[in-house]
Design brief:
This protein is an alpha/beta fold and about 400 residues long. The chain is built from 14 helices and 17 strands. The strands form five sheets. The chain has a seven-stranded mixed beta sheet, sandwiched between helices. Strands 13-14-17-16 form a four-stranded antiparallel beta sheet, covered by helices on one side. A two-stranded antiparallel sheet has the order 1-2. Helix 5 links the parallel strand 5 and strand 6. The protein is globular. The structure holds pyridoxal-5'-phosphate (PLP). The site of pyridoxal-5'-phosphate has 13 residues, from helix 4.
Length: about 400
């Protein structure tokens, strides 16, 4: 993987802030976009824009073809059994809400249990929380050990209570932990639970094979995966999507509407009420072409190198004054680098780094239960991606040394 030449594909990376070249280290929040994706979206508007599935004229047919082509591309990315298992949504949040509320009105009844984990993003906690009111579920959470990994013995204890659903993230957006989804799915299936996988932080970094993972539903967002904002994917096993009630009603998702009754289309159309984000779907399919063109193997090796470098620099410069969260750098983990610097608030770190042109995230990262578990109000997070260099990691830690000096005065 040639990072220097690949950076030329990302126009935004040439920007400067406060007179310094941008060092973008917030890709876990959203990734930058290659020119190919930006151009694919504008080409759609310049050449193919029409409402898909509706018109019988040639332009609308082209729009339909492009949209359905994007669906097939996503299906191949996920190794789905059929493109019909791919539902286009706004993002991971909408995907999980669609599953949670669909199950809440079909599979789940008062007193049923759902198991999630303390390391989830709010989008894989709050929709389930909402089902506590109606239909009245119990929500249990698997904890983590000090190594940042899920406590699978606790999962077993909770599975013994026969939950109907296990909702788990593939990769933590704070710790970088890669969860053993296949193992979790196997154990969950033994007690008859459905497995919902949040792959928002996995899809940008590793190949996904929904069958091999043992998932029943899986969600990811286009904008974290080099694609546009406002487009994401809900994948579900055909026989489950067929039984899932839609959360939204409107145009295009129906078979027949009468004043006294309504019937719905087969999936995926049933879950795509209204005019879809055609340009976004096309942009996403081009993003997946780009990502697979780079290759996941090279990407993983590059990200491992950046993670290793970050840990080395952290220890050299800060020793016990810095705490790095998540599994050790040599294990199976993603390059999500959350840290706390003794005596300096994460917001101050992020502001002072911004003055150096460095963009990192600070806050609770939409994972307040995890912050509580870690005993911190907030954390700093640097999340590099394919376009970041080892030099940028070095500059991050140099700048952090400067931040520490400011607070030592
Ligand atoms: C693990 C995880 N799940 C879900 C989400 C929500 O994604 P979106 O805001 O694109 O719906 C995020 C976003 O940060 C995430 O990191």
């Amino acid at each position: 993987m040639n990072v220097e030449s690949l950076r030329n594909d990302f126009p935004l990376l040439t920007r400067t802030f406060h007179g310094k070249p941008l060092i973008y280290l917030d890709s876990a929040a959203t990734s930058q976009k290659p020119t190919a994706v930006i151009e694919a979206e504008s080409e759609f508007y310049e050449q193919k824009n029409a409402n898909p599935h509706r018109g019988v004229y040639a332009l609308s047919e082209e729009a339909t073809e492009a949209y359905e082509g994007a669906r097939a591309r996503v299906g191949r990315f996920l190794k789905a059994a059929s493109p019909d298992e791919v539902v286009f949504v706004r993002g991971t949040t909408e995907a999980i809400n669609t599953v949670a509320f669909g199950l809440g009105r079909s599979v789940l009844a008062k007193g049923d249990r759902v198991v999630s984990t303390v390391m989830e993003h709010h989008s894989n906690i709050v929709p389930w929380h909402m089902l506590r009111a109606a239909p009245g579920i119990h929500l249990d959470f698997v904890g983590i050990g000090d190594d940042g990994r899920l406590q699978l013995d606790e999962l077993d204890r909770l599975l013994a209570l026969k939950p109907k659903v296990v909702a788990v993230t593939f990769v933590s957006n704070v710790l970088g932990t890669v969860n053993p989804v296949r193992e979790i799915a196997d154990r969950a299936h033994e007690v008859g639970a459905l497995v919902v996988v949040d792959a928002a932080q996995a899809a940008p970094h590793r190949p996904i094979d929904v069958g091999a993972l043992g998932a029943d539903f899986l969600a990811f967002s286009g904008h974290k995966t080099l694609g546009p904002t406002g487009i994401g994917v809900l994948w579900g096993r055909s026989e489950l999507l067929e039984k899932l009630p839609p959360s939204e009603g409107g145009g295009e998702m129906i078979r027949e509407v009468h004043l006294d009754r309504v019937s719905y289309r087969e999936p995926p159309g049933r879950f795509e009420a209204g005019t879809p984000n055609v340009a976004g779907a096309i942009g996403l399919s081009v993003a997946l072409d780009y990502l697979e063109g780079v290759g996941f193997e090279g990407l993983a090796a590059h990200e491992k190198k950046l993670t290793r470098r970050a840990y080395d620099r952290a220890m050299e410069r800060f020793s016990d004054r810095i705490t790095m969260f998540g599994p050790r750098p040599n294990g199976d983990r993603e390059a999500v680098l959350s840290f706390a610097l003794r005596g300096v608030h994460p917001h101050d770190i992020a502001s002072l780094l911004d003055a150096e042109g460095i963009a990192i995230r600070s806050g609770h990262h939409c994972a307040q239960p995890l912050m509580e578990r870690l005993g911190v109000p907030a954390l700093s997070r640097a999340s590099p991606y394919l376009y970041n260099t080892v030099d940028e990691i070095d500059r991050l830690f140099e700048a952090l040394a400067g931040v520490e000096k400011v607070f030592a005065r």
